[in-house]
Amino acid sequence: MKTKRVLIVEDNDLNRKLFENLVGQLWSFESVINGRMAVNKAKEIHYDLILMDIQMPELDGISAMKEIRILNGQAPQIVAISAYADEGDRESFLQQGFDEFITKPIRPREFLQVLERLISGDSLEQNSKTYPEDNLDKILDINIVNQLMKYNSPKIIKSVFGDFVSECETLILQAKGQVKSGDLDEFSNSIHIIKGNSGTLGANRIFSQAQEIEKLSKEKIVDLLPKKIENLENEIQIFKDYIKEEINFIP
Ligand code: MN
User: Fold this and answer.
1) Can you tell me the distance from the alpha carbon of 174 to that of 176, in angstroms, rounded to the nearest whole number?
2) What is the pLDDT of residues 82-135, one digit of tens each?
3) Where do the structural domains in the chain lie, given as residue ranges?
4) 14 Cα to the center of ligand 1, angstroms
5) How far apart are CA 94 and CA 103, in angstroms?
6) Where does the chain have alpha helices with state H?
């Protein structure tokens, strides 16, 4: 019997799907796509845990958390999830009122361990071990695939990888237009989504390229971008071919 309730608050479709697949293994859950909807849900229903993305339209995760904190009733555990922060930002999230903080891309096993600890009310200080560095030269990090396979059906994993590749192709097309028209903010957003999703799925070479491009665009080093975008596009094609050939690794 799934007695604990989790609310997933995330505007990114791929991330939300992954969180749902992971959380759904252990608890009952509902999902919403922005902070405003999260506050409304929390007014109606008690959740044991709320998984809160930080960057969202309508109402961001920090504001939503603060509004939920002043509601009457039993307080939920609220976990911040952000791709724009690193472990060094943990203190600041906790001080603002979150119970825990997880960086994206998440690692499924660690992710569920953290949630399990919070939901079970185990107040043990979180062990401060850091995640092992993945092999950044790998087209696909098989450790991540193995972890995903523990919690997801092969059918879901195949569809997630398929969706990932098509979204990359759409985003890279948009990104090329955005860099041409000098719209660097929109461009950064497109690249950021590719970076986040590739990190989550262990598409490490795509991740490295996207990370590099994001850095260049933040530093406004635009003349290097066309070449780098070409590299990223190649990596996406390589990944697509790889998945087509190696899809048999999934039973
Ligand atoms: Mn977001």
Assistant:
1) 5
2) 887 777 788 899 999 999 999 888 888 888 889 998 988 754 444 433 334 445
3) 5-120, 142-249
4) 11
5) 13
6) 13-23, 35-44, 61-69, 90-96, 108-119, 142-151, 154-180, 184-201, 204-218, 225-246
CATH topology of domain 142-249: Four Helix Bundle (Hemerythrin (Met), subunit A) (1.20.120)
- For residue 38, the CA-to-ligand 1 centroid distance in Å is 13
Alpha carbon distance 155, 221 (integer Å) = 41
pLDDT digits (tens, 9 = 90+) for 175-232: 999 999 999 999 999 999 999 999 989 899 999 999 999 999 988 888 999 999 999 9
Two structure tokens written together for 81: 């999830």
- Give me the residues near ligand 1 (ion), CB cutoff below 5 Å: 11, 53, 55-56
Given a contact cutoff of 8 angstroms between Cβ atoms, the answer to whether 198 and 104 are in contact is no
Tell me how far the alpha carbon of residue 241 lies from the centroid of ligand 1, in angstroms.
Answer: 29
Distance of CA 10 from the midpoint of ligand 1 (Å): 6
CATH topology for the 5-120 domain: Rossmann fold (3.40.50)
